[in-house]
Amino acid sequence: MKRRGFLSTTLKTSGVLAIGSLPAFNIISRKKLYKDRLGIALVGLGSYATNQLGPGLRFTKNCYLAGVVTGSPDKAEKFAIDYNLDDKSIYNYDNYEEIANNPEIDMVYVAMPNNMHAEYTIRGLQAGKHAISEKPMSTTYAEGKRMTDAAAKTDKRLFVGYRLHFDPFHLEMMRLGQKQVYGKVLETDAAFAFPLTDKKRWRLDKVMAGGGPMMDVGIYALQGTIYTLGELPTAVTAVEKTKDKAFYSDIEGTLEWSMKFPSGTKNILRTSYEDGYNYVKARAEQGEFSVEPAYSYNRLAGTTPAGPMVFPRVNQQALQMDAIALSVMTKTPNPASGMMGLRDMFMIDKIYESMGTGKEVSLAGMPQVLDRM
To answer: Where are the alpha helices (DSSP H) in 65-135?
Structure first.
């Protein structure tokens, strides 16, 4: 039977995947084929894994796609064909722990709805694999703490999918701001929003998402402000600005907040499912520098007092995964650490607290993690 026919028949009749359900197409071990690289298993084959992470792994130099974990036979079949995966590389959510017996898998990348990040990241760590959780790392600080505790207990590395720490435009924002190339930064403005009105999307489910746009795209504005300044805030003040409260009844539709920094830099941050904006801007003593669009996967554009930022087009996911893999292999730090993810969950919890009370909330006790140039 031809490969496609075999896969289709086996997967669809079984209903779920099981070890040994697919033929061993790869005679030569992928580990031998990709020597000196780390094998990554994608956990959850939704849109991001299918359209960004999987394709990104075709361009990596330090890692490769070594397996997938999914509850969908159809998605498993497509990945098996597209990426030449054999039976030892395909898992479902019930036999997920069996990755512990697969030496080709060194790391898992959990790309599932937010409320599943903690469970599947911890299970991956306990299976003896390093782990990347897509952002946000969890739905609460308490969940994130369970994840970092699990990494410490298993002596495995934990990372968060903060792709923009490796994008040249954002590295330039860090350099210009942190090095005060145009003088002290006096004011920042960061915002990310897009219209989302399809109730079938899990991002509008508070249980699955943990909140509204703050838990999805707002975290980009939060991060962009902090790494541009190279400084950690000490307090936050948030105000809900939802326009259609009948539709966004369980989550914020629009949120604005500001942060207090030791330097006194003024700032405003916005996120929304009711509007559209995508930028990070900094006004310094000698002029403004910015990236707009700032948070997309490609076609970013930046300006400075000296002219436009000019950088080659890159695959952000490939750069991110390569940098993480290299840090594991060389046992060196990486900015997209689990502790940075925990820091952000601490701030997000406090932002929601401020949104509920209307008062400034202290960030005392926040993990002191910062990506400095």
So the answer is: 73-83, 117-126
